[in-house]
Amino acid sequence: MRSTIIIIAIIAIIGAMRSSAKCPQPTKHYTTLGCEPSDELSVEGCPRWFNCSTLAHRFRDKCYLYGKAYELHEHVPDGKVKSSCLALCTCQMNARRGVAEFHCAHIDCPEFLTPHRTGCVRQYRTNDCCASRQACGDKRSSLARCTVGGVSYYEGERMHFPDDPCLTCICTQHFNESDHPFSHTKCYTNECAFELIAPSVLTNGAAPVYYGDRCCPWEWRLQEFIFKKKVKWI
Ligand SMILES: *[C@@H]1O[C@H](CO)[C@@H](O)[C@H](O)[C@H]1NC(C)=O
Ligand SMILES: *[C@@H]1O[C@H](CO)[C@@H](O)[C@H](O)[C@H]1NC(C)=O
Predict the structure, then answer these.
(1) How far is CA 222 from the centre of its chain?
(2) Domain coordinates of the chain in residue numbers?
(3) What digits encode the pLDDT tens for the residues 137-169?
(4) Residue pair 134/120 in contact by the 8 Å Cβ criterion
(5) Cα separation of 161 and 10, whole Å?
(6) In angstroms, what CA-CA distances link 191 with 20, 30, 65?
(7) Residue 49 and residue 59: Cα distance in Å, rounded?
(8) How far is the centre of ligand 1, averaged over its atoms, from the C-alpha of 67 (Å)?
(9) Are 175 and 184 contacting, i.e. CB atoms less than 8 angstroms apart?
(10) Distance of alpha carbon 62 from alpha carbon 100, whole angstroms
(11) What residue's CA is closest to ligand 2, atom 7?
(12) Which of 34, 65, 130, 181 stands 20 to 30 A from 173 (CA)?
C-alpha cells in the first residue's frame, strides 16, 4: 500500500498543469480519499504533503467513500452520491477480487438523451444529477443573469469557475462573482466518484491522470508491469 501512496504523489506532481490562482496541481484524489493536507504550503500554494496514513490501515471487508468506512451491506445515503448521478449504493463483497466494493445504480437524466431545445435553459438544484425542469421563451427572458469569468448564465444554470474546477454554483439573482463562493448557499464542491465507480484502481496501485481543467481524475493507470499481468480485471 505504501507504493500506492508514493505513485499517487509522483503522478499528481507531473499531472497536467491547470490554470488556477490557487494550488495549480491536481490534488482532488487526496482529499477524496480522506488524506490530510499539511498546513505547510509550497511557494505555489500547494500543501507540501498529504498524510495518507489511514490508507495503510484499510480492511478488505469494508468500503471507503470520501474518507469514511462502510460495513458490508451498509447503504450510502443517496444525498452523498446523487450529484455523481448514482443512487442506492451499498457495500458488497466482490468474491472474485476478495475485496468489498460499492454497488450503485446509475441515474439517467432525460437531458442525457434529448437534444437541447432552442430558446430553453435547463434549471438545476444544488447537488442534483438531473435538471428539475426547463425554462423557455418568456420564462427564460425573465430569469436573472449571472456572470462568471466573462461567461453569462441564466438563473438556475450550473456555473463553472475557471480558477476552481471543483466548484459549482447555481446562478441566483443574489449571486455576485466578487463574493466568496461559500457565502452563496447554492455553491458546492464537486465530488469525484472514483471510489464508487472504480474501487479496484486504488487497491491495485493505479495512479490518477488528470486532463485539462477537470476536477476529477479522468482515468487511472496501472504501472506497466502490473498492467500486463492484471489488465483483465480492471
Ligand atoms: C498522519 O496522521 C496520523 C493520524 O491520522 C498521525 O498519527 C501521524 O503522526 C501523521 N503523520 C504525519 C507525518 O503527520
Ligand atoms: C458585487 O459586490 C461588489 C463588492 O461587494 C460590488 O461593488 C458590486 O456592485 C456587486 N455587483 C453586483 C452586480 O451587485
Answers:
(1) 20
(2) 27-107+192-222, 117-189
(3) 999 999 999 999 899 999 999 999 988 899 999
(4) yes
(5) 26
(6) 18, 12, 10
(7) 24
(8) 15
(9) yes
(10) 6
(11) 178
(12) 130
Q: Which residues pair with 93 in a beta bridge?
A: 100
For atom 11 of ligand 2, the residue with the nearest CA is 176
- Give the ligand at the shortest distance from the Cα of 57: 1
Give the pLDDT confidence of 17-43 residue by residue, as tens digits.
Answer: 333 347 888 999 999 999 999 999 999
Pocket test for ligand 1, best of 52, 53, 54, 55 (most atoms within 8 A of CB): 53
**End-to-end alpha-carbon separation of the chain, Å?**
18
Using a pLDDT cut of 70, give the percent of the chain over it. 86
Determine which residue's CA is closest to atom 12 belonging to ligand 1. Answer: 51
Q: Which residues, judged by CB distance below 6 Å to any ligand atom, belong to the binding site of ligand 2?
A: 176, 178
Cα(15)–Cα(216) distance, integer angstroms: 12
Query: Which residue puts its alpha carbon closest to atom 11 of ligand 1?
Result: 51
Residue 204: phi and psi, rounded to 5, are: -90, 5
Ligand 1 atom, smallest distance to 38 CA: 14
What sign has the CA pseudo-torsion 130, 101, 205, 222?
negative
